[in-house]
Amino acid sequence: ALREKEAALQSLSHQRMAEDQAIEAQERARAVIKRLVNVEEASESAYTCLSCLGILKKPTICVPCGHTFCSGCVGRSRACQECDLEVRHCFHSETLDHLAGKFTYRKQVLNELLHEIEGA
């Protein structure tokens, strides 16, 4: 009977150790995901329209100043909304459009993952 109790106690001890290790791994994962979320949030301004302050939709770059707006936010005036320089030309940036889309997706996935881990 004593050996059975010792074996059960040892089994519980191993179980507890495994649970503690799982909790530590979860905490490390949570910390890494939070750092990734912070990195994404820090880069958000690169994908933000200077007019509506949302994530760029069909990014349009003004020449010569280089300020970027959503295509729907670019004003009809000949002056840049941000710096007041005369806008000679505007063009759509496919690359920035692609990057802004990827940014939105990464941020969404990281937030879902963080929510999932914090709920566990």
Automatic annotation (TrEMBL):
Domain RING-type: 49-84
InterPro entries assigned to the protein according to its UniProt record, in alphabetical order: Znf_C3HC4_RING-type, Znf_RING, Znf_RING/FYVE/PHD, Znf_RING_CS
Keyword Zinc-finger appears in the UniProt entry: yes
GO terms, molecular function: zinc ion binding
SUPFAM superfamilies in alphabetical order: RING/U-box
Keyword Zinc-finger: yes
Pfam families per record: zf-C3HC4
Keywords: Metal-binding, Zinc, Zinc-finger
Protein name (database record): RING-type domain-containing protein
Organism: Eutreptiella gymnastica
